[in-house]
Design goal:
alpha+beta; Jelly Rolls; 7-stranded antiparallel β-sheet; 7 helices; 18% helix; globular
């Protein structure tokens, strides 16, 4: 116990906050070469590629990069800036926008080495277009598994040095790799895939020129210094967060020692939380402050529509809707993905009403695909009277016109007609789904 107290007393002598920086070399890099069988790779060559070559097939190239953040920064540090710097060798000078996207699965850097874009024959452990580790472990998606949103983007043209960041997303990536090292699978560099001959060639970590190798520039503040603690609390904080790394995946102190330090910090700070013990409600390894879905585990932070809301808690993951509006239709389905004219219950009720042969003609159901999509149910009153206002038929419609998407709902009289044009494809598809679900529930068939 005396040793423990001496440790945080010594660590508490200097407590002025100061920003620090570190430059990290890449701990791994490789080129993914488009190939259906993963027969080509480039894990140990002096260069890597991103973009498309001029080959008629198999021309896409993507680069993987990884940096060992956790071994270079002190435990509990708060990352304030992150910038990736690469050196482009002479290649096609056409400007190409390349984005860095966080990789969500582990990958290998094998022995395959080449200076050209065609790569070399894949060897054991290489990452390829289809393999994370040749030839035993596969990507879930050919071409790599990665976040949908770029953490940083840069336009690359002629030979020279280029940088990505610092951006909030890049800082968040690096912070998450420090706090949860097991989640560090690096970035994938990609872009220029919609046109031929856009490939860019960069020096890799095996380059003969050390100054041209990839590097990650990080600025950070030590957690205890950034918190502006008083001397006693600062010393305990340093002992807990840095000397013993009690908040890390592999603490250097025993559970008992860390618990004692936490108790002392609570007493010295008046009950404040330790700065390095970040909040992570869903236990997915991502700070609540940067987690795009705080209450549902999503360590990969997938966000297909790039609206800042993680797919696992987005009420419309296919359409950007950062405000998550849900003002009509089915509860839990965001307005951006919901039918603005009716719900499946509305259609089911309408079908039940129309199945009165003494009042209505037989229900007609139409579902055409794929040209000019039209999905509808409709029936007429036998007495010739209108259904809803301004509508002769009783119907529910989801349709693509020549210039617009629309939905329409004409319930039985005296209810009012609902017609909305200019809806999105996602909204139209929701309307279509509601019609088909109600039709199926009623045992009807669409033509």
């Amino acid at each position: 116990m005396r040793l423990l107290l001496s440790l945080f007393c010594v660590l508490g002598l200097a407590w002025q906050a100061a920003a620090e920086s570190v430059v990290l070399p890449a701990s791994g890099d490789a080129t993914l070469i488009a190939s259906p069988d993963g027969s080509s790779a480039n894990g140990s060559g002096p260069v890597f590629f991103a973009g498309r070559t001029g080959q008629p097939s198999g021309s896409v190239r993507r680069a993987l990069l990884r940096f060992d953040v956790a071994s270079a920064l002190p435990g509990g540090a708060q990352v304030t800036s992150a910038r990736l710097e690469l050196s482009l060798t002479p290649s096609n000078p056409q400007p190409v926008e390349l984005g860095l996207q966080r990789v969500t699965a582990d990958w290998g850097e094998g022995a395959a080495a080449a200076s050209g874009g065609s790569g070399a024959a894949s060897t054991a452990g290489d990452s390829t277009w289809v393999h994370r580790f040749y030839d035993t472990d596969f990507w879930a998606n050919p071409g790599g598994d990665f976040a949908a949103t770029a953490s940083a983007v840069s336009t690359v043209a002629g030979a020279g040095g280029y940088g990505w960041g610092s951006t909030p997303a890049l800082v968040a990536d690096v912070q998450s790799w420090l706090d949860a090292p097991a989640s560090n699978h690096g970035w994938i560099l990609l872009g220029g895939e919609d046109a031929p001959s856009t490939a860019k060639r960069f020096d890799s970590r095996e380059s003969a020129d050390p100054a041209a190798r990839p590097r990650l520039l990080i600025e950070f503040e030590r957690a205890c210094e950034a918190a502006d603690l008083q001397r006693g609390a600062f010393g305990v904080c340093n002992a807990y967060c840095e000397a013993l790394d009690c908040d890390g995946e592999n603490p250097r102190g025993s559970e008992r020692a860390c618990d004692r330090l936490a108790h002392h910090f609570d007493r010295f700070s008046g009950g404040d939380p330790l700065p390095c013990e970040f909040s992570d409600i869903d236990a997915d390894g991502v700070h609540d402050e940067i987690d795009n879905c705080v209450e549902a585990p999503n360590p990969a932070q997938e966000d297909d529509d790039s609206d800042g809301i993680g797919d696992v808690c987005d009420n419309c993951p296919s359409e950007p809707n950062p405000e998550q509006e849900d003002t009509y239709g089915t509860v839990g389905v965001g307005d951006a993905c919901d039918c603005a004219c009716f719900t499946v219950l509305d259609v089911a009720v309408l079908i039940a009403e129309l199945q009165t042969p003494a009042v209505y003609t037989e229900i007609a159901c139409t579902d055409t695909r794929p040209n000019k999509p039209l999905t509808a149910i409709a029936a007429l009153r036998l007495d010739g009277a209108p259904c809803a206002a301004d509508s002769d038929d009783c119907s529910a419609v989801a349709v693509t016109f020549t210039e617009d998407n629309a939905c329409q709902f004409n319930p039985t009289a005296p209810q009012e007609q609902t017609e909305i044009q200019g809806i999105s494809e996602a909204q139209r598809e929701a309307c279509r789904g509601y019609i088909l679900a109600a039709v199926d529930g009623a045992g009807l068939t669409c033509n």
